[in-house]
Design brief:
Order of helices and strands: HH
Largest sheet: none
Low-confidence stretches: 1-7
Number of strands: 0
Shape: elongated
Strand content: under 5%
Length: about 90
């Protein structure tokens, strides 16, 4: 394979890797993994809460799932903002 990692990780054609670009790609991959984990946890929690037993129709379960997901996302965002705020304060105090 020609190009090696340089073609995948921001090489400038000279065979050197761009550490800044690699770090950005890693950050994107971590963000995608976090989003997938959030979706999986939210789906599991809301399904268990709202679907008593699988049947032929969802009845009011659709509304329950929508409300559960909204609450879960609100809580996730609140915790994320608090966590990021705390990290920024700690970095400022270093």
């Amino acid at each position: 394979m020609e190009g090696g990692f340089g073609s995948d990780f921001g090489g400038s054609g000279s065979g050197k890797l761009d550490p800044g670009l690699i770090m950005e790609q890693v950050k994107v991959q971590i963000a995608v993994a976090n989003a997938q984990e959030l979706l999986q946890r939210m789906t599991d929690k809301c399904f268990r809460k709202c679907i008593g037993k699988p049947g032929g129709s969802l009845d009011n379960s659709e509304q329950c799932i929508a409300m559960c997901m909204d609450r879960y996302m609100d809580a996730w965002n609140t915790v994320s903002r608090a966590y990021n705020s705390r990290l920024q304060r700690e970095r400022a105090n270093m």
